[in-house]
Design goal:
The protein contains five helices and no strands. The model has no long low-confidence stretch (mean pLDDT 87). By secondary structure, it is mainly α. The protein is globular and about 40 Å long. It has one domain.
Length: 147
């Protein structure tokens, strides 16, 4: 239960404020639109927060990246391979056409690449602080670099 709370809580905070700021400052949505959009995403984040953490952990453990660049590549791949289908499905449920979904996902990919590693770092940090994880694949790789 602790892992669920930590992963889901971290996802809620990160994906409420990060994308919310982008929607407001870059996209130009009004504060009301941002609040509505982020509010609508809360159930999606609650349902996907822990499964994404499990997926990310599995990839990092399976691939065992060494070095900062390799960890960033795996973190990014984990993020994109999980979040793109979730985002596309969310858009489809909202009534977007295939063309709109492809355009939105294509645009979101740039942000996903930028957000993936910072989110991974935050998730590892919160997990360590909460004691929900003795070690993570990224922490293991960092220790290997120091040895």
């Amino acid at each position: 239960m602790r892992k669920f709370i930590v992963d889901t809580g971290t996802a809620l905070v990160f994906f409420t404020f990060g994308p919310g700021l982008m929607e407001w400052l870059i996209v130009g949505l009004t504060v009301h639109q941002v609040m509505l959009t982020r509010g609508l995403m809360i159930p999606v984040i609650v349902v996907t927060g822990r499964p994404y953490g499990i997926w990310r952990d599995w990839l990092l453990t399976r691939l065992r990246p060494r070095g900062a660049v390799a960890i960033t590549v795996v973190d990014t791949a984990a993020f994109i391979s999980f979040q793109v289908p979730v985002y596309a499905a969310t858009l489809a449920v909202a009534g977007a056409t295939v063309h709109e979904i492809m355009l939105a996902v294509g645009t979101a990919l740039a942000f996903m690449v930028l957000l993936s590693r910072p989110y991974g770092l935050l998730l590892d940090f919160v997990r360590r602080r909460a004691g929900s994880r003795k070690s993570s694949a990224t922490a293991d790789a960092a220790r290997r670099r120091r040895i």
